[in-house]
Write the structure tokens for this entry.
Amino acid sequence: MRIGILSDTHNNTENLQRALTIFRHEGVETLIHCGDMTRPETAVHLTGFTLVYVHGNMDANPIAIRRALFALNPSSVAANTFTGELIPGVRVAATHSHIPGKLDSLIRDGYDYVFHGHTHRRRDETIGQTRVINPGALGGAQHEPRSICLLDLKTGQSEFINLVDWA
């Protein structure tokens, strides 16, 4: 199962649309959004996907974002932190990582994958038995080119895609 990972949209709907076009082209149906959508109006662009969304520090109204996501797809999840299995036997967790100690705690808990945002910097490293992935940012402060990540949960193969490089 291939999933799409994105984060830190910061209402940049142009980059969000570009990312969603890539995910659709790649046949991705499930997205992990690692926070900072910021406004519930941005959620409408996520139609057609099952979404796991974790709230970020810039989300002004997390309850309204959650309602907007559920209206699009009742199978979606929106919470401060997500833990679970997207496919049997593969334990995943997601956090925005703005809550002190939360990211480190999830890594210590031994999930197969921990996804996070907040830093606006790509990351793909293994700590102990846990693979930690940050897809980079679609909006807000720009430290690196805007990017997303594709991940095959069965094989572990990942690919970071710079939005400006994709045609």
Remarks:
- The chain has one domain: 2-165.
- Helices lie at 13-25, 62-72, 102-108.
- The first helix runs from residue 13 to 25.
